[in-house]
Amino acid sequence: MAWIALFVAGLFEVGWAIGLKYTHGFTRLAPTVLTIASMVVSLGLLGVALKSLPVGTAYAVWTGVGTVGTAVLGMILFGESTAALRMACIGLIVAGIVGLKLVTEA
């Protein structure tokens, strides 16, 4: 259950990272409210996951899921680079997340 909470927390991290772009410096009400709500949910679920997962592992996976998701959505939504080296680096982050899951008990 902790791993599911952690993964969902990472997805909400993607939500607030992408949401920041849409707030236009916190000048647009609806995107700002949704972004702040995503932050609260993300941190709350991270806290739930930390009840049974090591902090170093949980934080690395949380930021990794957020990083990969944000990078992929940046490519889709904002036309950011899809260069092979960038994709390979994102793949390394995914490998790190999977590796941490495989070696961590809980």
Q: Summary?
A:
The chain is mostly helical and 106 residues long. The protein is built from four helices and no strands.
Features:
82% helix; flat; mainly alpha; 4 helices; 106 residues
Radius of gyration: 15 Å
* Global shape: flat
Number of strands: 0
**What kind of sheet is the major sheet?**
none
The helix/strand class is mainly alpha
The low-pLDDT segments are none
Work out the helix count: 4
Overall helicity: over 70%
Q: Tell me the fraction of residues in β-strands, as a range.
A: under 5%
Map the helices and strands.
Elements: H1 2-23, H2 29-49, H3 55-78, H4 84-103
Overview of this protein structure:
The chain is an all-alpha fold. It has 4 helices and no strands. Helix 1 runs antiparallel to helix 2, helix 1 packs across helix 3 and helix 3 runs antiparallel to helix 4. The protein is flat. It starts with a helix and ends with a helix.
